[in-house]
Every structure is written in structure tokens, then in C-alpha cells.
Amino acid sequence: MTCTSQVDIKTVQALLTALQNDNQEEVAALLDDLTQLRESELYQRLNSLTNNLHGTLDELVDNQLLLQTKHDIPDVTERLEYVLSSTAEACDKTLASTEKAMEISESIQTFIQENLTDEQQAQIETRLNTLNTELTNILLAQSFQDLTGQVLNRVVLIISSLEQSLIQLISESRHDYDAIPDREEGSEQTSAEMKGIGPNVTQKSKQDSLDAQDDVDDLLGELGI
């Protein structure tokens, strides 16, 4: 039995005695003692729980997670947004070109009706109908862009939400998000991870490319080339 428990029992016994004796002042004083004691215990338990929580957060938030939150997640988000804008732009160009081609096909059809024989008209109209069918298929196929765009937009929202949650977790674990350092460049792991990432579409990758080109230019200048 703990010291606190012994104090509780003695205080309760004294409270019962005071109640039996109808000693209101002593009853009030003992109740205050019990209340303060329970509040003190509650504070200690909450403080212990808070410390344990911070300790758990410190274990969860390792250096790799810090770097991924600060650098990798924003990089992925920016690349997905690039894919979204690029596919939307390509889709718009395809639709515009297809509609223009269909207009040209209609003008040719008008022209042949006025200047060619019936047999020639029939042959060319058959080919034009085939062309129009293919152009219509192209227009219908572009509907995929709407679907993939919706999916990618949803992915970007989820990643952004995850990023904010991780930033909050980092802050609650008493880490300074703004003080997280840049990734070390030149390591074998970094080189392997960078393979197959595509063109320089993010601000960071564009700046890295410019810096690398500046280094090459400086070297060539030193060699007199």
C-alpha cells in the first residue's frame, strides 16, 4: 500500500468520525484535503502521460521522416501538379486540333460535291466518313483526362493533408520544422533515388540543374574552352 493510499484511508476515517460527531467545520476541512490530494494526483498522472506522449513522438519522428516531410512530400506534390497541368494542356491542344480537322473535312466534303463526278464523290466521301469517325474517337478518348485529373487532384489533396499532419506531429514532438536541413547531395542512395524521376519540373530540380550547368561552364572556362 502506498503512502498516498494510507493518507487517503486516514483522512476518510477522520471524515467519517467528524460526520458521526456532526462536526461541520472538520468535515469541510477534511473534504478540502481530500479534494486537493486527488487534484495533485491527477496533475501528476497527466504530467506523466504528457511526458510519455512526448517521448513516444520523439521515437516516432526520426531524421528520415523529418527529411521526407520537409523535402520529399512537397517534391511529389509539385510533380503531380505538373502532370495534371501537362495532361490538361495536351488534352486541350488535342481537342482544338481535332475540331479544326473536322471543320476542314466538312469543307472538303462541300467542295467535292460541287467539282467532282458522282463516282469520285462517293470514293472521297467514304474516306472522309472514315476520317470523321476517327476524329470523333479521338474526341471521345479525351474524356480520360477528366477522370485521371479528378483522381490526381484527390491524390494531391490527400498528400497535402498528410503533409500538414506530419508537420503538426513534428511540431508537437518539439522539433523545429524550419530548422530541418537539406538532404546531403552526392550520396549513392540519393543518386539511386533520383533515377527515373523525369524532367526538371520542380523549382528545386530546376535550380539544381542550373547550378550544375554553372559548374560545368566554370570548368570549361578554366580549361579555356
Automatic annotation (TrEMBL):
<dbReference type="GO" id="GO:0009288">
    <property type="term" value="C:bacterial-type flagellum"/>
</dbReference>
<dbReference type="Pfam" id="PF04344">
    <property type="entry name" value="CheZ"/>
</dbReference>
<dbReference type="GO" id="GO:0050920">
    <property type="term" value="P:regulation of chemotaxis"/>
</dbReference>
<dbReference type="InterPro" id="IPR007439">
    <property type="entry name" value="Chemotax_Pase_CheZ"/>
</dbReference>
<dbReference type="GO" id="GO:0003824">
    <property type="term" value="F:catalytic activity"/>
</dbReference>
<feature type="region of interest" description="Disordered">
    <location>
        <begin position="183"/>
        <end position="214"/>
    </location>
</feature>
<protein>
    <submittedName>
        <fullName>Chemotaxis response - phosphatase CheZ</fullName>
    </submittedName>
</protein>
